[in-house]
Amino acid sequence: MIGTPRRPRYIGVMIDRLIKSLFAAEPQELAEEDSRLALTALLVRLARSDHDYDDAEINQIESIIAARYHLGQAEATALRHEAEALEAEAPDTVRFTQAIKQAVPYEDRRRVVENAWAVVLADGVRADEEVALMRMVASFLGVSDRDSNIARLQAAKS
Length: 158
Known about the structure:
- By secondary structure, the protein is mainly alpha-helical.
- The protein contains 8 helices and no strands.
- The chain has helices spanning 9-22, 32-48, 55-69, 73-89, 93-103, 106-122, 128-140, 145-157.
- It is globular and about 40 Å long.
- This is Co-chaperone DjlA N-terminal domain-containing protein.
C-alpha cells in the first residue's frame, strides 16, 4: 500500500507477543523491556487522543523515556516508534490500561501517570479529550485521584 509504512518483522513479533502476554487469562508482571514498551504506548495513546499528535508531544515523550529508562536519543526514538506501532494495534483504552494495571507494579503506574500529565500539558493546550482520557486512564490504572492530582501538579511544575 502506498503511503503506509511497513514495520520491521521483529517489531510485529514483539508486539504480538506483548499483546498476548497482556491479555492472557492470568497476566504476569511484565519483563522490563515489555513494561517500557507498554507504558510508552500509553503515553502515545494519550498524546494522540486529541487528534493532534505534534512535535511538542513527541519530544516530551522521547524526553520522558530517555530520562526514565536512561536511553540515548536514538534509543528513545526507536522505543517511541515501537510504542506507536503497539498503540495502533492495542485494543480499546479500557482493556489496555486494565491489562497494564495487572502486569505493572503500582509505583511504575503512578510514575507513568505523572509522565502522562507531562505529555498532556506539553503542547500548552489542555484539550478536553486529553484531560478526560487522562483521568480515565489514571483510574483504570488503579492510581488514586490524590496521586493523580499530585502527579499533575508535579508535571505542571516541570
